[in-house]
Amino acid sequence: MSKKVFNQLKKLVTEKKNPRSVLIDRLPTLEVLKIINAEDRRVPLAVAKKLFQIARAAELYYQTYKKGGRIFYVGAGTSGRLGVLDAAELPPTFGADQRRVKGVIAGGYRTLIRSREGVEDDFPAAARDLRKERLSKNDLVIGLSASRRTPYVAAAVAFARKKRTKTIFISANPRPVVPIKADVNISVVVGPEVVAGSTRMKAGTAQKLVLNMISTAAMVKLGKTYRNVMVDLGGTSEKLKERAKKTLIDLTGVSYVQAGKLLNASRGHLKTALVMAVKGVSVQEAGKLLGKTKGKLYPVLE
Asked: What pLDDT, in 10s, does the model give residues 153-176?
């Protein structure tokens, strides 16, 4: 098995030595940073080449959430942490249901704060972890693996496919290197890392960008924004409460005091408060109007 892994690693772009950083260990700090920065600038260019696949993934994500399905991000190490991060940020940012967006990382919660590299090789653990979630054909599993070969992630995607669950696979190596079957396959090839094999760098950045694009596009399509402003954010902190007031003031011209009253009346639901302010209607009537447009604001306000 070890020789098989060795042979796989030899083929991975992310494991190769980068000729542009070969002397990095003897350069002044500023020169080291210039090399890292120059390599980082290659990442969005590589992402841009995969917009068609990313669009398919975003549409799949949108349709899954719209129809009541759940989204699971599955990964190990850096990839797993990025998946957990995206899932964790959607409820406060867009009012997404935290029961329907979930990060699953090899090794469980402890590996979020302390690396346990061996857990990525636990092939059977992926099925055990996902079996608890009772996957169905209405759900979506997003597998994240920079190398494409992470056993835990490969097993998770394979298990999901057996359950007829929709799948997206995101990596930083070309598809032929390690073939993984998924409904949408996104390989953002960012080239060798500044430090060979350190996929927390360009590969991690690429995965973060792609996840941002997929989930944000899906949330926008779900009506979680009005124009380019968040209008379904959760009022779970003072900052978010004040941001809701600011949005209400900016979009409708009401006073700070009026904004507070409208949000109190709507129990902190910014969309409802916006409809109340613009249309001059009650909480109940605002709710009915939003119900007719499935929560989208622009058909109500414009």
From this structure: 999 999 999 999 999 999 999 876
Per-position DSSP letters for 9-53, written without gaps between them: HHH-GGGSPPGGGTTGGGS-HHHHHHHHHHHHTHHHHHHHTTHHH
59 catalytic? Reply is: no
Q: Is 285 a catalytic residue?
A: no
Lowest mean pLDDT across 12-16, 121-125, 176-180, 250-254:
176-180
Question: Which fold is adopted by the domain 225-301?
Answer: Helicase, Ruva Protein; domain 3 (1.10.8)
Catalytic residue, candidates 39, 59, 117, 120: 120
Q: Which of 15, 59, 89, 242 is catalytic?
A: 89
- Rounded Cα–Cα distance for residues 247 and 251 (Å): 6
Angstrom distance (rounded) from CA 253 to CA 235: 21
- Least confident range from 143-152, 227-236, 246-255, 265-274: namely 227-236
What is the rounded CA–CA span in Å between residue 76 and residue 119?
A: 8
Superfamily classification of domain 2-221: Glucose-6-phosphate isomerase like protein; domain 1 (3.40.50.10490)
Its pTM surpasses 0.90: yes
